[in-house]
Amino acid sequence: MKVAVTGATGLVGRHLLRVIAAKPDWMPIPVSRAFLDLRETDRIVPFFLNLRPQAIIHTAAVTGVDACEAQPDLAERVNHLATVEITKAAEHLDIPLLYLSTDFVFDGQKGRYREEDPPHPINVYGRTKWQGEQAVQQWEKHYIVRTSWIFGVGGKTFFSQLPHRIQQGQPIQATTDQWSCPTYAPALAEQLVRILEEGLPYGIYHLPGEEAATPMEFVETLQRTVGVRFDAVPVPREKIHRAPRPRMTILENHLLKALGIWVPGYSQFLRKFWQDAVGEKRRHIP
Ligand SMILES: NC(=O)c1ccc[n+]([C@@H]2O[C@H](COP(=O)([O-])OP(=O)(O)OC[C@H]3O[C@@H](n4cnc5c(N)ncnc54)[C@H](OP(=O)(O)O)[C@@H]3O)[C@@H](O)[C@H]2O)c1
Fold it and tell me: What CATH code is carried by the domain that includes residue 83?
């Protein structure tokens, strides 16, 4: 099966390419900005019709929550309008489309969210990702998979960047009033591919790591697990973020877990994450 992966240079995209390439009879088709800039929405349908994939996994997005707030037009174009076009392409080709979405489609008031809970985003990132979800639902053969706080070597998020910042001796500030489920990118990619491989019923799914934490709890667990000493300063979320953040968005995985698809909690991946991050840094020393 030829699977096109948008966001091929991103954290999840890179792991998806690796997982797909390892499957007999599967072939990943990386779709990166160099081939298709998603701001050029007119190019999207012809691009995919020419490529003729047998499935699309759409991970590309403007993912910086504060960047989306600063550039709402860009977020709207890439996260929403480009997704409209990718959906049209999937429909033309009559192929499944898997769209990676986020816990930030919720406002955080309820705290724990099931797949059927109504979204109510409170920032531009969440709103444009939810618009993306609504676009994808126009094509019957869709999977919308919501996850949260993805981390892994080479990622751009607070969690992904921690080993590098700790090793550089940079000050660490972590919020204590935000709860969600950190999700390890390599493990997430494995499970995402299973959704396509096993031909699950189309629909909306939650696929977070199975353990909730605040960013400060993540930092403290990392300290304990790898035995590295550094100072972390607790801060409230409005002090360090430009865009409003939901207070608590713990995604509950009811549907996929019943089918044996779930991602273990973040704490069991921290040792490997740290070792890989340190090894990555060593490889870059001339
Ligand atoms: N990161 C999280 O904590 C998190 C949590 C929940 C859900 N998600 C969702 O999961 C997905 C993957 O996240 P990630 O962490 O892997 O993101 P990431 O590392 O920030 O990667 C984003 C990807 O999107 C691409 N992209 C952005 N603008 C583009 C454009 N105009 N044209 C073509 N490609 C463009 C980037 O390409 P360049 O490398 O060229 O910029 C990059 O490959 C996203 O849809 C995100 O909304 C993420």
Answer: 3.40.50.720
Sequence-ordered list of residues with C-beta below 8 angstroms from that of 257, at least 6 positions apart, any chain: none
Decide: 55 in ligand 1 pocket, CB within 6 A: no
> Would you say residue 185 lies in a domain?
yes
Query: Does residue 11's CB lie within 6 angstroms of at least one atom of ligand 1?
Result: yes
Q: What is the pLDDT of residues 42-54, one digit of tens each?
A: 999 999 999 999 9
Could you tell me if residue 226 is inside a domain?
Answer: yes
Q: In 33-164, at which residue ranges do the beta strands (DSSP E only) sit?
A: 55-58, 97-102, 111-113, 142-147, 150-151
> Which ligand 1 atom sits nearest the alpha carbon of residue 7?
43
Give dist(CA 209, CA 225) in Å, integer.
17
List the residue whose alpha carbon is closest to atom 15 of ligand 1.
11
Range of the domain at 192: 2-276
Task: Kindly state if the Cβ of 39 falls inside 6 Å of ligand 1.
Answer: yes
Task: Note the pLDDT tens digit of each residue in 109-136.
Answer: 999 999 999 999 999 999 999 999 999 9
pLDDT tens, position by position, 181-209: 999 999 999 999 999 999 999 999 999 99
